Amino acid sequence: MSKIRIMPCLDMKDGRVVKGINFVELKDAGDPIENAAFYQKEGADELAMLDIAATLENRKTRLKWVKDVSAVINIPLTVGGGISSLEDIEMVIAAGASKVSMNSAAVKNPELINQAAEKFGSEKIVVAIDARRNTELPSGFELVVSGGTKPLGKDAVAWAKKCQELGAGTILPTSMDGDGTKAGYDLEYTKAIADAVELPVIASGGAGTLEHFYEGVVKGGASILLAASVFHYRTFSIGQVKAYLKNKGIEINE
Description:
The structure is a single chain. The protein is 34% helix and 26% strand. The chain is of the alpha/beta class. It has one domain (5-247): TIM Barrel (Alpha-Beta Barrel), CATH 3.20.20. α6 (156-166) runs parallel beside α7.
């Protein structure tokens, strides 16, 4: 297994970091530039920045945020939100992103994954897959888009396999049922995706205790652990998470 990486996530709205529960009830969680610099200093391996309202507001990712944040860090930065064309990807990478995360646009136009992987390299293409439980689908998980507002009646795990075939480099599954709840990653969903693909999978949504990070690796099969609330509100530090995992025998990126 590859070394486990820790990835704080900046959910962005109106130029500020925000955090919600189940994709709603947003609260302010600070300044993105200060947070980014702080997390790098704390030992974050990567950083994610998601413009959570871009798709809903039918606009592009705000490039200024990308430039400002990338200027204060040298760890990989994954940027998502409102990315719907090769031109968008080009602009976001030019603004300082190392990788881009696509969600709704990839579902709408799967060929975009293929074109983006060919043009920029698979390692730069992350596909975010939001889902909710639905027992009528083979995997039990239904694909949702537009910031969790539109269920599609499609199987989320089957879509992950398709994304791998099309050339995605990483899969970022988020369970709407777990987002922001601090009740732990949705291990069943994360594991279903990790078992279905041979790509790095980012566990996301719901980390609230040190044990949750460990479970994300051991029970969820993730190789990158994303969290927001616990880091933004300083419940514990990245150093504490890494020390805990190392103590439990998990090989971490140091």
